[in-house]
Design goal:
The protein is of the alpha/beta class. Helix content is 48%, strand content 21%. It has one domain: Vaccinia Virus protein VP39 (Rossmann fold), CATH 3.40.50.150. The chain has nine helices and seven strands. Helix 5 links the parallel strand 2 and strand 3. Helix 1 crosses helix 8 and helix 7 packs antiparallel against helix 8. It is globular and about 45 Å long. The N terminus is likely disordered. It binds S-adenosylmethionine (SAM).
Length: 243
């Protein structure tokens, strides 16, 4: 199935991504748990561990959406640290901000509406940047990776958590079936929105595989880039450093 999201002109893709996330913002967390059977929590826990965050550091949770990673980072950096939750979509940012404030997390978090392709931060600013399930939605991924490299401190690290290519053909088939049939159905039943969840499936399929993304990070300037497959490669965690 090809919904043609990569073939549409750039501005149209930007508008469609915006529509999708305005539409799913309210139901995003519950759908995340349902669709991944809660496993996204484990993927995110491993992401946090790979950041090796210390007190006082500055962290960027890019395309941070409803702020799952930001909540953990906020505890880890302490009162002298800073976590910026940046997202292009104000509906997602609002849901994230309300959720984190309800948890009493206010001291060290800032919210910034920003496009990953043109980050509004100074050079060499962050100790760690994460982009979790966000990069596949970005129109110009190479530009975004270069922008992340610019705002990262020398010695800092980028972690990209994203859907990737399942490593076993049977798993690949089962996963295709799940994404193109079960996901839109769940989207329809729970959120009354099958189109957005069809977009999700299509954007996952179009996203670069493990080695392509590794090369893209290297081309953007990152060093010592490696990746770890999770859940048979359904998701991969890519790690790269700015030297
Ligand atoms: N990081 C969160 C998580 O792991 O649960 C949210 C992921 S959600 C699937 C993808 C997020 O990427 C959405 O909140 C969307 O608004 C954001 N996004 C899409 N394109 C973006 C861009 N160009 N720059 C910044 N954020 C973007």
């Amino acid at each position: 199935i090809d919904f043609g999201f990569e073939q549409v002109p750039k501005q149209e893709k930007v508008n469609r991504v915006a529509d999708v996330f305005h539409s799913v913002a309210d139901k995003y967390d519950v759908m995340n748990d349902l669709m991944s059977f809660g496993i996204h929590r484990i993927w995110k826990k491993l992401t946090i561990e790979h950041c090796s965050v210390r007190k006082g550091q500055k962290i960027l949770d890019l395309a941070g959406g409803t702020g799952d990673l930001t909540a953990k980072f906020s505890e880890l950096v302490g009162d002298d640290g800073l976590v910026i939750l940046a997202d292009i979509n104000d509906s997602m940012l609002k849901v994230g901000r309300d959720k984190l404030r309800d948890k009493g997390l206010i001291k060290n978090i800032e919210y910034v509406q920003a496009n990953a392709e043109a980050l509004p931060f100074p050079d060499n600013y962050f100790d760690c940047i994460t982009i979790s399930f966000g990069l596949r939605n970005v129109t110009d991924k190479d530009k975004a990776l270069r922008s992340m490299w610019r705002v990262l401190k020398p010695g800092g690290r980028l972690i990209v958590l994203e859907f990737s290519k399942p490593q076993y053909s049977l798993l690949n088939k089962a996963y295709d079936l799940y994404s193109f049939h079960v996901l839109p159905f769940m989207g329809k039943v729970v959120a009354n929105d099958s189109d957005s969840y069809r977009y999700l499936a299509e954007s996952i399929r179009m996203h670069p595989d493990q080695n392509t993304l590794k090369q893209m990070m290297t081309d953007a300037g990152f060093g010592d880039v490696k990746y770890y497959n999770m859940t048979g490669g359904i998701v991969a965690l890519h790690l790269g450093f700015k030297f």
